[in-house]
Amino acid sequence: MQISWLEWVGYLASLIVMSSMLMSSIIRLRWINMTGAAIFCFYGFMISAPPVGFLNGFIVIINIYHLSKIYLRKEYFTMLEITTGDRFFLNFLQYYDREIKKLFPSFRLDEKNPGVSIFILRNMSLAGVFFARKISKDTLQVDLDFVIPEYRDFKLGNFLLNDNCHYFLQKGFTRLVTFSESDEHTRYLRKMKFNTMEENGKVMFVKELSP
User: Can you give the pTM of this predicted structure?
Assistant: First the structure.
């Protein structure tokens, strides 16, 4: 049986909508769901099924509305310095252990040389944690820059590493270095304007901080 191109369009739309349900990030969910709904809208009108077209057109409008609210609303970010022995910090690491190991499989907590340890709050909700060790007078090695899945939209990274780089400068650090063990982390580092250089055969990511 030969499948028409319109049926393939319907299958594609179904696949995209189903995949959107697997997203942990609400922003990714809405973008992918909106794409699937838009294709379904086209499909509905092409097969002369107005209810399908109008329903999915409405879903596209709803997604646009909620995405515009997300991108336009003013959010409150703040940093909370912590100690590596803080019980809540240790519980946080334990709770997100599986997610952390996906992005930072080599991460080990070094309590003897913390350097900088920070919780990052977003609208007063705990959204991420930053842990870096001092490796020279002016350099921090970032071992953990973890954001919980529902907040992975680069806003926390921009807040900490770009908008508030003076935080590190005030502590005497002018350079951040780190290594990546996952494609997702690599994309994040490039988005945060880390440059690459090679050290002992390994690719290292470096960010020079300036006022």
Answer: 0.71
* Residue found by looking up tokens 């997604």 in the block: 63
On whether the CB atoms of residues 63 and 34 are closer than 8 A, the answer is yes
Name beta bridge partners: 122.
77, 125
Distance CA 97, CA 125 (A): 19
Hey, what are 142's tokens? 């970032």
Residue with tokens 């329903």: 55
Rounded to 10 degrees, what is the CA torsion of 157, 162, 166, 171?
A: 50
CB burial readout 83-115, b (16+ within 10 A) else e: ebeeeebeebbeebeeebeebbeebeeeeeebb
CB contact at 8 A, 156 and 77:
yes
Q: Looking up tokens 């594609």, which residue turns up?
A: 12
CA-to-CA distance for 175 and 172, rounded, in angstroms? 9
Are 169 and 176 within 8 A, CB to CB? no
Length of the chain: 211
Residue type (1 letter), 21? M
3-state secondary structure 29-79: HHHHHHHHHHHHHHHHHHCCCHHHHHHHHHHHHHHHHHHHHHHHCCCCEEE
**Max Cα-Cα span within the chain:** 70
Residue-wise pLDDT tens digits, 47-74:
999 999 999 999 999 999 989 987 887 8
